[in-house]
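Late entry, written up from scratch paper. The run itself happened at the end of the previous shift, but nothing got recorded in the book at the time, so transcribing now.
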Amino acid sequence: MKLQPDRSDVQTITALGADWIAVQADRISHSVVIGSRGQRIAWPCQRFEDLGAEHFAQLAELDCEVVIFGSGPKLRFPQAAWLRPLIAKRIGVETMDTAAACRTYNILAQEGRDVVVALLLEPAQ
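Output as recorded:
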């Protein structure tokens, strides 16, 4: 029996650096929201300090199963009040550093889950 890896048409994150990611062949160097249903939306924030409730309300409008928040190069948690729109819609939220968020998104998307990853890509210092 010949075994072949599963193939999926969902967009995956294929590489990342300190202030960029690659989705398939596209290099992205700004904060971005990527979804397993094909969403790719610029996320208007450059630093963790720029984030507010409106950023997470935008994620709630995507009506997905789970949101993964990539908080940049180190783990930083959003304020609980910012998550209210997601909690109200019973959307799961996980926070991790951006590299871990990319890996987790790829796994869940390949499993066929309705997942969105919101990646904070801060400019290099």
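Helices lie at 53-60, 84-88, 98-110.
(Scratch paper discarded after transcription.)
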